[in-house]
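Q: How do we represent a protein-ligand complex in a form that can be generated token by token?
A: Start from the inputs.
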Amino acid sequence: MGVSRRGVLAAGLAALALPGCGSEAVTEAPDRKVEVFSWWAGPGEKEGLEALVADFARHNAGIGFDNAAVAGGAGTIARSVLTTRLQNDDPPDSYQIHAGRELADDIRRGYVEDLRELYTEQSWLDKLPDGLVQAITVDGAIYCVPVNIHRSNLLWYNPKILAGLDLTPPSTWADFLTQADTIARRGLTPLSIGPAWTQKHLLENVLLGQLGAQTYAELWTGGADWEGPAVLAALRMFTEVLARTDAATPAGDWQPALDKVVDGGAAYNCMGDWADAYLRTRGLVFTEGYGVVASPGTDRVYNFLSDSFTLPKGAPHPGAARKWLVECGSVSGQDAFNPRKGSVPARTDTDRSKYTGYLAAAVAEWADEGTRVVGSLTHGVVADAAWSTAIDAALAAFVQDKDAARFARAVVAGRR
Ligand code: GAL
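Then emit the structure tokens for the protein with beta-D-galactopyranose bound:
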């Protein structure tokens, strides 16, 4: 992508303003609005965005916020809308993207501006964890501003339902399979599931739980053997787990899949900690209306992802977009957003007292040096778009044919 259509137009108009013709110097009007693209339109997500926008408005009177959010969990629908806009040279002023390989794709395509100057001006570099900075840096340039850290590997439940079943959350997937018989005999779904991306989300966390953090991380860096016995056994475990879900009648998105757990139709749901925000919007109280543990086999491991915002090349309102990014990277912005979003701040110097309930433990665990950090597949950290899309296609076949060896071959072939 080269110069944008708007860029050409602006250059053309500038050329018409001949020097000396006007009586006054031409000054650029400040941007009056900022169009921000995300997928935070649904319950539990829009509340976080609204809190961030309210804080932005407090600091930026006179700049309107144009909310271009496209609904749908994990951004699968939003991402295809965004791709069309970027390909048609019609970028928003800022768009949401995950830190990691997903971002690297957009850097390679030339969609996003380098933000190093903003990082220097705002002194952000020493306020973010080193690993996160590495995930957003390419060849010394930094292309987005992370607003949070989410955890993917969590298992949600309703404490009253579990007590009624005389169960405590499983610590391995093998334990889960044992419990599943009891749960199914009582007429409940052992694990609720939603659209295809939630199956991928489950897959990554079964792989993590069965293989451990080291081998899981090596799946994405080339160090682990996808076609070897350990991975094949973990993939077979995934098919066993999936067989205990309601995949035949899946929920429409992640929120209704969680509804089944808290309303009593299902015992468990494997989902990221945006679930915490959603369940609170339903008026539920942590440890009473809902509980959570690390997904089986992943205690003390943080399968992370980070929501970030960019400055696209050719953004129509780059001045306002920079102000939006400053907001995303600020202490006040992150402390307004994250307590509502169910995530911990990307910055390390925010006000911990604002994080209560589930989030108090999450903030402590994220900061704990003993916590092992790995990156999410489904949420953009470890695989680029081409590989991730190849995995999607292979997974759609795998859930039908249950052929672990064929799936592993397709995953390896899909890597470029
Ligand atoms: C993730 C995103 C989270 C949350 C989730 C469900 O990809 O990073 O912030 O929105 O999808 O939609």
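The pocket of beta-D-galactopyranose is lined by residues 39-40, 45, 73-75, 98, 150, 254, 272, 274, 305, 307, 379 (CB under 6 Å). The radius of gyration is 23 Å.
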